Fold this protein.
Amino acid sequence: MPILLSIIVPVYNAESYLYTNILSIINQRKKSKEFEIILIDDGSLDNSAKICFELQQKYDNIKYFSQKNSGVSIARNKGIEYAKGKYICFLDSDDYVSEKYVETIISIAENKDFCILDNYIDENHKIYKEKTWLIDEFDKYIEKSRVMEWICENKINAPWDKIYLKEIIEKNNIRFKPGLNMGEDLIFNLEYINCCDKIFLSSEAICFHTINENGLCHRKTSLKHLEEFNTIYEDISNKIKKCERSDFYKEKINIAFLRNIANYAGKLYKSGYNKKQIKNIFGENEMIKNILNVKVRNLKDFSRKILLKNKMYKLCSILFNS
């Protein structure tokens, strides 16, 4: 029986929740040999590698690979290389899924290039649906330009609520950008969607994404993050230049980065950097100049713009740091 679905899970120091994640995928309501789980251990320092090996020994459809610590992008890229499925999904190692996860994905994905699903957020055991703002858009095909807009607004960039076609990934040599600890999914999705025609938005919520302060998505504030912001901003800006609505998308990107940089400035201040130090860190940054020139349409964004322009980083830490 051919494999229809490859589920790629990067693993790093995940011993406390890895079993929960993998067993939720294995224990499906409808038993099927049509899917595989690919575990990529990214040089974990705990017992994650041992757990991955034990799971591979116990279950035929689990494949385990390891690499020296190289980051989530390279781990996911390695998973893509090993994947045998027609469809590819990504999960984080602290996420878990519904008992109808596999059958739902296989059912929804047929004859589509790209599927975006609703999902649950598990934040300190409080569970809620994430995409309530999309309720009027569910269960129909969506125009590419609309999804591009959401991506540029930084609203639907995570990979764990999406179904990808491996054929499109391989044909267009789409990969996660190495060296980034954030924003790699935004760039990946932007590249992928440019190669799609049939994009479907589903109300099915079958993945529970865990908000975990120690997880892949929650790293401590670092000076390197500004370099990553610059890299992501430049990459996205170049990718949208040839788009029909490039000026429109650029405005959306600038607003999204305005929010991110205000948040980042607040985190730097909370981490002990003073006003002069943050000013020096930001320096004559071209990206920051661009975002401070963007037209804003609501009070919060106007406040962000004013505070950054006037280097009021302490207020950023109070109002916009989360």
Q: What stands out?
A: Strands lie at 5-11, 35-42, 62-67, 87-90, 96-97, 114-123, 126-129, 140-141, 162-165, 199-211. DSSP finds 13 helices and ten strands in the chain.
